[in-house]
Here is the input.
Amino acid sequence: MSMNLPAFSLKRPVTTLMIIVSLVVLGLVSLSRLSLDMFPDISFPHLWIRIPYPSSSPEEVERLITMPVEEALGTINNLKTLRSTSSSDGANVSIEFKWKANIDEAMLEIREALDKVRGELPDGVENIYVYRFQSTDRPIVRCNVSMAAGREQLYDLVDKVVKPRLERIKGVANVELRGLASKEIRVDLNDNLVKAFRVNPYLLARSLRTGNFDLSVGKIFFGGKRFTVRTLGELSNHLEVMRLPVKGQNVRVGDFSSVTYDFPEEKDFQHVDNERAVSLRIFKSSRANIIDVSRRVNEVFDELRNDPKLSGLRILVYYDQSREIVNSLRNLRQAGIIGALLAIGVIFFFLRKLRSTLIIAISIPTSVITTFLLMYFLGVSMNIISITGLALASGMLVDNAVVVLESIYSQRQKGMNSYEAALKGSERVYVAITAATLTTIIVFVPLIFLSTSRFGLFMKDFGLTISTALVASLFVALTLIPLLSERLFRSPPKERTRFVLFLERNYTRVISWTLNHRAVSVAMTVVLLLFSIYLAKGIKREYFPQVPDRTAYYRLEVPNGYPFEKLKSLINDYEKRLVAEKDRLEIDNVSIFSSFSAR
Here is the structure.
């Protein structure tokens, strides 16, 4: 005769206890190694290609860039849809793949296809950008760096001090700088002098490109040694651009143009409380821990703020993913703990037995910790979705334990000793709770395989967490509960409380009335079902629930052709009014971003 789990746990108590302890220890170790993320690591089957080509027309971009690129991309494997838009600034191509496609391999195929067609694109196409979206690609920290200083001083401070300090942090993969362009060499032609010297602007542009090079011209052998010869022709400053010859050695660029090294024409600006600002986006490496990286980043920020050489520097962190993760996980953890405590309280209220409640109280954390072990091996991270599933499952974890415990206690009341009661009681419900648990798991299993939508990908961790938690609770109910019951239920059982007897009598009456009035019972059930369906139609539907936020966003749109200086003056006026009312309106800071590039 085969031995089931309850019989094994009672006949091998030491082995069973060692297995439970091992699972708890491994679960705690797994908990320390589970990665913390805001959302599950998801890679959607979409890629985007951006090909800048400014100062053109949509028709020209479509003919010279979009159509050749579409033809080259049309042969990629697992391609589902291909969409493109052409504008005066360049081409944008959106590629959607089938869900079974490997996005890493798809990116390699796309780059190979673009390399093949690169020679057919216009000379003005300098860069081709390929983007993909992963939930872990979001910046972990966003901040504004402001200072009551000039444009050049602020840029030098951020580019040469702040950004290098952040890039040296262990776990930081990239630091993006936005809101302030770097200096560039600008060549302004004088029309009259260009005509007088008979300079072709096209040939001038080609001379500037070909005159700025640094390449190898070969090797020479001298004295039994080999030397590499390179021509150093890179232009290092704007003065060398002025001296660059255009027509022979007589005409140089500075003879008919004005060459300057300065910031480009201002098309956007950022302010924080009336001070010029620059925004930074900090990304972590793929295997780095968000909490640790964010902590190091904030430590560097504190050092910069306290540096006496950087007096007046202001760093405003308006987004820190680690704070959201920690706060969300803390709230969900508290909800799970409160739910477990309430479940234990309800059990004690009905059973009125301290030992029975203690057995249930031990089974809940044991099941949860065992779930961490299963999550680790299944590759599920600690994120909002998985913790939500675990918090929801905390109420289900006691179901199997309560059924087994009540069955054992009822056998004990019939006069059996503690060993026989634990064995017979658990064997009576062994098949029933196993079938019930599997039935519940089947409800959540489809969430694991819902991979044809963004919502389905997010809910995969939810289904995995609940399913593993239910499996862990079933194992604990069939092993630990009989073992503890056999050890703790050795004293004579007490009579049931009056409240429990009252519930049993009234429940029996309700069941009896339902069976004797089947037609009325079915009719009431149908009416309740139809009324529920009617009410369900009025429930508001949305992708994410609306949550209160202490951040207010305002968008100002102006007509096409609106002067930039006038726009800047208008926004500055609004900003000054808000800053002046900070105390009255309970405003922490006012951040302004204005973009004029699309006008």
